[in-house]
Amino acid sequence: MKYVSFRVAATRPKCTFILSLFLTLVSLADAEESVWKDQEGRSAPNTESRASKNDFGGWLVVTPDADWKQKWETSPDTIPYFSTSSTVEKGKQLFILIFFVNPDLDDNHNADVTYDIESVRPDGSFSIKQKDVVCLRGKLEGNSYYLRLAPSIIKFVGEPKDLPGKWTVHVTLKDNRRSVELPLKTSFTLK
What we know:
Elements: E1 6-7, E2 23-25, E3 36-37, E4 50-53, E5 56-63, H1 68-72, E6 87-88, E7 93-101, E8 110-120, E9 126-139, E10 148-149, E11 154-157, E12 165-175, E13 180-190
Parallel strand pairs: 1-2, 6-13
Antiparallel strand pairs: 2-3, 4-5, 5-7, 7-10, 7-11, 8-9, 8-12, 12-13
């Protein structure tokens, strides 16, 4: 199990081992650069599970934390910490959290963010396949650079009949006003 820590208004992970890369959102003054920054303020490179393009950012986090909701629903000044995992045993659970930041806004401060999602079993079949799931459509409250959690949370429970092996989750996060798509991918192994 590995752990990731990221610093932003309204976000958090928990850990005994913390990767050297602490992610934070850029300030409005730095809006011309990548949305994701390391602890020293350098642009963090896009990865399969975390990316930004044209000032819009998205991130997939796989966590075994059953208390993810309590960790998330705190004041924006509190940094939440989520443990992450790339494996799960049968009978155990994982949660796939979809985060996004800085969607484009119209004159009334409205955003239009959707996503497509596919969850692929080890044999290549789909356990989930949905298009244009609404993530945020309407008025955006607060600073657009606050990290936001998509309303749909994917809960995976390793059931006895589930195929062991690598499960892959593909999410295409879409800022429809900006016409930007972020293809994101994460995976975990069911043992």
